[in-house]
Amino acid sequence: MTKTETPASAILHRDTRFVPKKAIGGKGSYIFLEDGTKFLDSTGGAAVSCLGHSHEQVNQAIKDQVDQISYCHSAFFGTQAAEDLAQFLVDSTGGKMSKLYVVSSGSEAVEAALKLARQYFLELPTPQPQRTRFIARLPSYHGITLGALAAGGHVLRRQPFEPLLAKNTSHVSPCYAYRGKWDDESDADYVARLAAELDAEFQRVGPENVCAFIAEPVVGAALGCVPAVSGYFPAMKAVCEKYDALFILDEVMSGMGRCGTLHAWEQEGIVPDIQTIGKALGGGYAPVSGVLIGDSIVQTMDKGTGVFRHGQTYQGHPVSCAAALAVQKTIQEESLLANVRAMGAYLEKQLRQRLGAHPYVGDIRGKGLFWGIELVKDKATKEPFDPKTHLSFLVQEKGLHPEHAISLYGCVGTVDGVRGDHIVLAPPYNVSAGEIDLIVDRTARVLADVFAGLK
Ligand code: PLP
Predict the structure, then answer these.
(1) pLDDT band at 235 (very low <50, low <70, confident <90, very high)
(2) 447 lines ligand 1 (CB under 6 A)
(3) Which residues, 6+ apart, have CB-to-CB distance to 12 below 8 Å?
């Protein structure tokens, strides 16, 4: 379907002039479309479908929960489904986090995390009401609602709404070795430079005014899977601790196994004070996200008012909780984290072999089953393509054509005013080596097709 053949639709689609084809089924790594196309879902949507589609065990758990009870308001009643999910997730942190707050989307989880950080300082025995500021990174993405958008540093998504966004977040550089690290600079020196920048930002806004620093363990939608260099997160956390500010990790995209450990922080040598989770929490079987909360915050709230001044109609939704628990149990029972690590290493190898020498592939980076490809016009200078080319979206759109039939998540990252093009791959945790071969082959073909069209 091209944009000129658009049928009528009462839905306000993302692109108002383009009605996407309908998905009528799904199994494993594939989505079946109404026109008969068998579509390779190599991104799990946006790093969501961690078990692929239509996993029997999860489907059954959802049906069982609906038969029992599908909704009750959390102000009146709790449910076993929500209790079981919370216990499972708290246990999964080895007791490092002590409570779970369940909502529906990543944006809502981030909103709750920001408000919790603020309220924590109000609940301290000596309250610190002046703590109203956040420090985040540019680029970053923390969600689309106004609070989360204001915290994030996704230039393109912020731009039309800039006048509506609260001005209490400032941004520092991300850890982005491909463009940010100087030639001949060691990882340790790079980390020290970024820690000094964060420290200087605390000083600039007044350390006593900062609630929290928020970061993604691997920058996802805003920069195409950029992991930090070793030692980065401990250095950032040390700066936060120096000023008694909280450290929030937004693991909505990179957490719940996506990077090869259930929690991305397990590989970073730190534990956040607050952690947001989403996407692979429920694997797309239900809209579900959460906030994992460290004990000192929980204790402070308990001894303070004992009331989190935040609440939503669908929080702790039993069907979402049952779906999420079934997804998480399946990941455990089928030893899928080991497969994420093994297939992730295989995906990296295949990407480097097939695309490493590609004239327009500037960087290939990632972790686990979360890989990004940065496309550049000039490999030597790292000059990006003209933004008017909309390259990453051309790639995403080309992938949708039936002759390619692969999802390639295009994203745009703006660093120091320079806009770059990135492609994200995020296959399901139960992906096979054969499917990885197919993903890499189709990706290479899509790129060849797109660049042929640009000549
Ligand atoms: N935080 C991060 C790191 C994300 O990647 C996203 C979505 O991509 C969000 C928050 C927002 O999640 P949602 O789209 O479910 O609201």
Answers:
(1) very high
(2) no
(3) none
Q: Tell me, what's the pLDDT at 1? A: 45
Q: How many CA atoms lie within 13 A of 225 on its CB side?
A: 26
Tell me the CA–centroid distance for residue 393 and ligand 1, in Å: 19
Q: Cβ(216) to ligand 1 under 6 A? A: yes
Q: Which of 405, 415, 424, 356 is nearest to 384 (CA)?
A: 415
Among 102, 149, 156, 252, name the best residue to mutate to test ligand 1's pocket (greatest count of ligand atoms within 8 A of Cβ): 252
Between the CA of 311 and the centroid of ligand 1 the distance, in Å, is: 19
How far away, in angstroms, is 42 Cα from ligand 1 center?
A: 18
Q: Is residue 211 scored above 50 in pLDDT?
A: yes
The interface predicted TM-score of the complex, written ipTM, equals: 0.99
Count of positions (residues) in the chain: 455
* Residue 170 CB partners (closer than 8 Å, separation 6+): 133, 134, 135, 136, 201, 204, 205
The CA 279 to ligand 1 mean position distance, Å, reads 8
Residue 29 has a pLDDT of: 97
Task: Tell me: pLDDT of 3 over 60.
Answer: no
Residue 39 in tokens? 């579509």
Q: Which residues pair with 219 in a beta bridge?
A: 226
Confirm if 20 and 32 have CB atoms less than 8 A apart: no
Give the pLDDT mean for 204-233. Answer: 97
12 burial type by CB count under 10 A (0-12 exposed, 13-18 middle, 19+ buried)? exposed
Question: Whose Cα sits closest to atom 13 in ligand 1?
Answer: 106
Task: Locate the DSSP E strands across 203-273.
Answer: 210-215, 218-219, 226-227, 246-251
State whether the beta carbon of 105 lies less than 6 angstroms from ligand 1. yes
- Ligand 1 contact via 104 beta carbon (within 6 Å): no
Separation between Cα atoms, residue 113 and residue 108, nearest integer Å? 9
253 lines ligand 1 (CB under 6 A): yes
